[in-house]
Amino acid sequence: MTIQIGDRLPESTLSEFIETETEGCSLGPNTFNTADLVKGKTIAIFGLPGAYTPTCSAQHLPGYIQLADQLKAKGVDEIWCVSVNDAFVMGAWGRDQKATGIVRMMADGNAAFSKALGLDADFSKHGMGTRSQRYSMLVVDGVVKQLNVETAGFEVSSAEKLLEQLG
């Protein structure tokens, strides 16, 4: 079953490559419980099929980087990019895209989060196995307030669309 507006995010974990060691976060991959991360926050989450893939690198992630300040001005506390890649790949891709400190590059290495959302997809015909569908959502204190799932191409999950929905 696919997550819907009004649903609470499912219990899951995501990993993030931490560039600078801080209290509670060691250098390198760290795994976080999603319920803990979203508590009391407004999070813009966008999922995509893969790091370094053409549309994801040329349009999807760059749009959220470019509009981050505007999203935050509308009340968004954090922006997450979720992909079925490992934390090392997501960290490297984030550095390449200049996303560090702007967008949290969240790794869903085994697609557990994507599957829990019902937003996983079979990309085996492309040699990529199970991946995430392309989507965006706004989550407020763990509850989905906006959800935009692509049916084909790249139209409804853009940063521009989510910004427009924030009013």
UniProtKB/TrEMBL annotation:
<keyword id="KW-0676">Redox-active center</keyword>
<protein>
    <recommendedName>
        <fullName>Glutathione-dependent peroxiredoxin</fullName>
        <ecNumber>1.11.1.27</ecNumber>
    </recommendedName>
</protein>
<dbReference type="InterPro" id="IPR013740">
    <property type="entry name" value="Redoxin"/>
</dbReference>
<dbReference type="InterPro" id="IPR036249">
    <property type="entry name" value="Thioredoxin-like_sf"/>
</dbReference>
<feature type="domain" description="Thioredoxin">
    <location>
        <begin position="3"/>
        <end position="167"/>
    </location>
</feature>
<dbReference type="InterPro" id="IPR013766">
    <property type="entry name" value="Thioredoxin_domain"/>
</dbReference>
<keyword id="KW-0049">Antioxidant</keyword>
<keyword id="KW-0560">Oxidoreductase</keyword>
<comment type="function">
    <text>Thiol-specific peroxidase that catalyzes the reduction of hydrogen peroxide and organic hydroperoxides to water and alcohols, respectively. Plays a role in cell protection against oxidative stress by detoxifying peroxides.</text>
</comment>
<keyword id="KW-0575">Peroxidase</keyword>
<dbReference type="InterPro" id="IPR037944">
    <property type="entry name" value="PRX5-like"/>
</dbReference>
<dbReference type="Pfam" id="PF08534">
    <property type="entry name" value="Redoxin"/>
</dbReference>
<comment type="similarity">
    <text>Belongs to the peroxiredoxin family. Prx5 subfamily.</text>
</comment>
